[in-house]
Amino acid sequence: MSIRDFEDRPVVQDGVEALESRSTQEEEAEEQEGEEEEEEEEGQGDEEEEIPEGEVLITRDTFIEDLEYAGATRAEQMVITGEDGENQYLPVPSSIRKSGIVPDGYAVDLIMDPLILVASLKKSGVKYESQLPAELLQNLKDTIMSANNMCIVPISIWEGKLEAIGHSVAMGEKEGEEEEDEAGENEA
Question: Model pTM?
C-alpha cells in the first residue's frame, strides 16, 4: 500500500515528452512489457483488495464526516504562522465558526488521524466495518470527529503530517509483510 492510498486528493503527475525519437519496435516492446507488468499487478491487487459482497472496507474516510464544516464550526484551535515563522495556537475566530468555511490556505487537521487507527485495525485483522460492533464503530467515529481532535492548520503543515503518517503506515505494513515472510520461511 502506498501513500497514494491514504491521500484525500488525486495525485497529479506532469506529462513528460520524450526528446529523442525511438523506433516503433522499441515502443511496441516497452508497451508489451508494460501491459504484462500491469496484468501481473492487477492479478496481485485483485487478491488483496477483493471485498466480499455486502462488506464495507474500513478506510480513513470511514471515520470522517463533513470534516471541513465540522472543523470550521467545532475546532477549538487554529494555527497561525507569524511573521517570524513561529506557529501560534489561537482560538478559532467567531467569523470562521459562523461561516462554517475554513479559510483558503488552511485545512482541518485531525490530531489523532484515522490512518493510524485503520493501520492498527488492519494489523489486528479487522478490515471490514462488520467486524466491529456498531456501538464501537460509532464511538471511534465520534472520537475522531470530536472538537478536541481537530485543529485548523496551514495546508503545508497538514500535507506534511499526512505524508509522514502515510509513510510511517506504509513502512509498518512493509515490516509486517517481511515478518510474515520470515515466519513462513521458518515453518518451511
Answer: 0.63
Backbone angles phi, psi at 71, to 5 degrees: -65, -40
Q: What is the pLDDT of residues 30-70, one digit of tens each?
A: 555 655 555 544 444 445 668 888 899 999 999 998 999 99
Indicate if the alpha-carbon torsion angle 97, 101, 106, 107 is positive or negative. positive
Strand 150-154 and strand 77-81: pairing? parallel
Helix axes 114-123, 134-144, angle to 10 degrees: 150
Supply the angle between the helices 155-187 and 114-123 in degrees, to the nearest 10. Answer: 10
If one counts every other C-beta atom within 10 angstroms of the C-beta of residue 128, the result is 14
* Alpha-carbon gap, residue 128 to 134, rounded angstroms: 12
Q: Where are the alpha helices (DSSP H) in 55-105?
A: 67-74, 94-99
Q: Which of 119, 137, 120, 118 is nearest to 129 (CA)?
A: 137
- Cα 168 to chain centroid distance, Å, stands at 11
Query: Would you give the distance in Å from CA 96 to the centre of its chain?
Result: 26
Residue 84 backbone phi and psi in degrees, to 5:
-85, 0
Angle CA 123–125–127, to nearest 5: 100
Q: From CA 87, how far away is CA 78, in angstroms rounded?
A: 10
